[in-house]
Design a protein that fits this description.
alpha/beta, 8-stranded mixed beta sheet, 13 helices, 38% helix
Length: 280
């Protein structure tokens, strides 16, 4: 059980003392993080699910919004994509966000799920003027309910990702430590600058996160060095290792900190959650 995990106590430090009331309960405005990279398979969903779970474990009400039509974050938390309305219906204005929120098996963690219909939103949103503001407007009524909201973006820079970037305060960019790690990063940063200039002036990059890192290989070492040299102030100190438990956890419908609290992946995501909070 996560309650007996000693990492939970260490994870609480940056969010406040254990005796302190959670931020959401004292009227603190939530922080909204988009997890974004147009490249697929770089660890966006793994990062969104596990950072959300770590923050919830620290005693803070947390919302995870699955903006990806693939719905991996939804399934990875053991939530069915078929029951009830989800993000698609919220973006269409058919239901309120309050009606679409679903509890998860993790105390303090709520999800706005991706249903099978969400893929249609990528085609429908551009047809409506001002549609890039739909997600921001939808979550506005619950700004005082959650201390943290994480938006798991699809692997593209399409309408759904733009909605997430407009709704977000900060962006976390997972970067796999492979040969093409820098491929597309310049384009992504250009897009973030454009969104900041034209649609969301408060948007900032919280950090780049090195993922799937195998410190035993020279390639991973070289990529890490290159990314840190190119973006010295943007790269998180925490590095997410290649870890079998991280890959296994979604098949059990739970985050890795509940699947194996003491594995290297769990330890890394607890450290990342603390670093995210300290940068906030």
């Amino acid at each position: 059980m996560i309650a007996t995990n000693p990492l939970q106590i260490s994870a609480k430090a940056p969010f406040g003392a254990e005796s302190a009331a959670p931020a959401a309960s004292v009227g603190c405005q939530m922080s909204v993080y988009a997890i974004a990279n147009q490249k697929g398979g770089v660890g966006k969903t793994t990062t969104a699910v596990n950072v959300a779970a770590c923050i919830a474990a620290a005693g803070y009400e947390t919302l995870l919004v699955d903006v990806d039509p693939q719905g991996n974050a939804t399934v990875g938390l053991g939530v069915t994509r078929e029951d009830g309305p989800g993000l698609y219906e919220v973006l269409r204005g058919e239901v309120s966000v309050e009606e679409s929120l679903r509890p998860t098996s993790i105390s303090g963690l709520t999800i706005l799920a991706s249903t099978a219909d969400l893929a249609a939103a990528a085609m429908e949103l551009p047809r409506t003027a001002g549609s890039e503001n739909r997600l921001r407007e939808a979550i506005a009524p619950i700004r005082d309910r959650y201390a943290f909201v994480l938006l798991d973006c699809p692997p593209s820079l399409g309408p759904l990702t733009i909605n997430a970037l407009v709704a977000a305060d900060r962006v976390i960019v997972p970067v796999q430590t492979e040969y093409f790690a820098l491929e597309g990063l310049a384009g992504l940063l250009d897009t973030l600058s454009l969104v900041q200039r034209e649609l969301n002036p408060r948007l900032t990059v919280a950090g780049m996160l090195l993922t799937m890192h195998d410190a035993r290989t020279k390639l991973a070492q070289d990529v890490e060095r290159e990314v840190r040299e190119h973006f010295p102030s943007l790269v998180f100190d925490t590095v997410i290792p290649r870890n079998v438990r991280l890959g296994e956890a979604p098949s059990f419908g739970r985050p890795v900190i509940h699947h194996d609290p003491h594995c290297a992946g769990s330890e890394a995501y607890f450290e990342l959650a603390k670093e995210v909070a300290s940068r906030g």
